[in-house]
Amino acid sequence: MGILRATTELSDKQVLTYASVYWSVFSNLVAVIIIWSLLRKQPRTTKIEKGEPTSIGKSTAYAILGFIALLFGQSICVFVMSQFGITGESPNTEMLGELARAVPLMIVFTSILAPILEEIVFRKIIFGGLASRMNIHVAAVISSVFFGLMHMDLSFLLVYVVIALILCYIYTKTKRIAVPIAAHMLMNGIAMLGQFLIGGGS
């Protein structure tokens, strides 16, 4: 914020917005680089990754079908939640959409960096680690609940947990962390596109 104040003529509100976006992108990029560099030389020892990964063709199909499953799963969750009076857009998604409309660079964080970091942490490390020590289904549920709580949006916890469970399934079936990353990227990209369209029409 100090750098922006010293080098630009942005208002205090704009400085806060731009600083939040730039820091999110920078810090997550550094985190991805550090974590990936630490893990890329590690042997595939978790229960999830044992065996032969699916071919590139099958992995691509799983990523696309997984993306469709994510959209369908979200729709089912939204319908179920509406029966209990929970309607509207997730505050977390709305906030990210507002930041992306104000500073388009936020799209890089939301659609690329966040999915990479979240899949490495929650699927590869947490889910993979737990699955090697307990029943794989219990591991999927525990890691998915952690994933949901991390988003700090309890009213939409069901949506996040279902998303995480689908991503756990994709990872388990393909044994390639890149596959849930790709499906997650597509899902977030579509969500951001929707926010832009909604924002543009308001």
What does this structure look like?
The protein is an all-alpha fold and 202 residues long. The chain has one domain. The protein contains eight helices and no strands. Helix 4 packs across helix 8 (178-201), helix 5 (106-131) runs antiparallel to helix 8 (178-201) and helix 6 (136-150) crosses helix 7 (157-174). It is globular, with a radius of gyration of 18 Å. The model has no long low-confidence stretch (mean pLDDT 89).
Summarize model confidence as the mean pLDDT: 89
Radius of gyration: 18 Å
Helix-residue proportion: over 70%
* C-alpha end-to-end distance: 29 Å
How many runs of DSSP E, i.e. beta strands?
A: 0
Count of DSSP H/I helices: 8
Q: SSE order in H/E notation?
A: HHHHHHHH
Protein name: CAAX prenyl protease 2/Lysostaphin resistance protein A-like domain-containing protein
Domain CAAX prenyl protease 2/Lysostaphin resistance protein A-like: 104-189
Keywords: Membrane, Transmembrane, Transmembrane helix
GO molecular function: endopeptidase activity
Question: Any key phrases for this structure?
Answer:
202 residues, mainly alpha, 8 helices, 77% helix, globular, CAAX prenyl protease 2/Lysostaphin resistance protein A-like domain-containing protein, endopeptidase activity, membrane, transmembrane helix
